[in-house]
Predict the structure of S-(hydroxymethyl)glutathione dehydrogenase.
Amino acid sequence: MDVRAAVAFEAGKPLSIETVQLEGPRAGEVLVEIKATGVCHTDAYTLSGADSEGKFPCILGHEGAGIVVDVGPGVTSLKKGDHVIPLYTPECRQCEYCLSQRTNLCQAIRETQGRGVMPDGTSRFSLNGKPIWHYMGTSTFANYTVAPEIALAKIREDAPFEKVCYIGCGVTTGLGAVIWTAKVHPGANVVVFGLGGIGLNVIQGARMVGANMIIGVDLNNGRREMAEKFGMTHFVNPKEIGGDIVPYLVELTKGGADYTFECIGNINTMRQALECCHKGWGISTIIGVAPSGAEISTRPFQLVTGRVWKGSAFGGARGRTDVPKIVDWYMDGKINIDDLITHVVPLEQINDTFDLMHEGKSIRSVVTF
Ligand code: NAD
Ligand code: AHE
Ligand code: ZN
């Protein structure tokens, strides 16, 4: 079938709106009509060429929501008409990782996903007879996509696509890192580095679990108002404190933070986030994605003296199990998504959303089809 998609032909170039061909779903796969998709910094990261798994030409996008249009042979958990959120972290419930109950990193299809193909090793998208590669198993910058059954969370039908698409990445990543990865406790002091689409959801999660101080760090003073609305108690702009931010934050928290979160993707702020943790017990969680080849460093003494460095992918959420619950939280008014979606545009304007992100003018942009 013909599909309208924003194609990334080359790293560092704007996306191009094209009519491409999409094959129907094969065994274990599902055809989804994408109704809305958010634009995450990770899409910009891969488009920039810094992603070692970036493969061009491809159809980016991993924060979508839509409706099942057709199912391939053997699909049992979904049917035509179901509302779904595609999952870049699938949940097969059968692999060693899923069965361990110690991680959300299902590995059932990770290898083919990283190569931009479906689990059978081929792409469903093509243009003029040449393959266009999938991205993160989701490729939501298209009005139709094909995804494996295990990479789709079935959600309630009264949830608005243009809002809950954000649960496909940013909302779940931020809330989940607080709840499932770091397990922030009530009364804790928390520092969040980077107050964008992810960091503001970390702030929202920290408030939900009853954190005490919620300190936001960002170079953009324009983030302050929104972060305060979501629960930030103190704002720090590193450019305005006239010195090293680590001792500043240790002093502010009277000994160091119980939990910190890096939501930027910068190896210097990753180090700062670890080192401003409390001696003996502070836990720093890396969420930001740093460029291929980048390495983090600190004095091992920081770890010897009890600080813990962790990482979180998709907030530690098990997508098919947890995403429908987060949709319920939104529908029940327990979490705020609406205020974070600052821009809604048609597919033709998708390149503007990358400009808005780089200029620090948007929190989340959503493309509707
Ligand atoms: P964003 O662009 O919306 O937000 C980034 C924020 O960081 C901005 O507010 C910016 O002003 C701030 N910032 C940039 N450099 C800074 C610095 N040196 N000091 C302080 N603040 C600085 O991005 P996002 O969509 O929120 O994504 C954030 C990061 O998280 C990206 O690296 C993205 O790839 C990653 N990410 C990871 C996961 C995961 O599962 N681990 C999921 C989603 C996104
Ligand atoms: N291909 C990248 C990996 C980037 C990365 O770490 N991705 C996160 C999700 S970011 C969503 O916005 C993730 O889920 N990681 C776990 C995994 O298995 O990829 C690179 O740098 O190579
Ligand atoms: Zn993302």
Summary: The domain at 2-168+337-368 is CATH 3.90.180.10 (Quinone Oxidoreductase; Chain A, domain 1). The pocket of zinc ion (ligand 3) is lined by residues 40, 42, 62-63, 169 (CB under 6 Å).
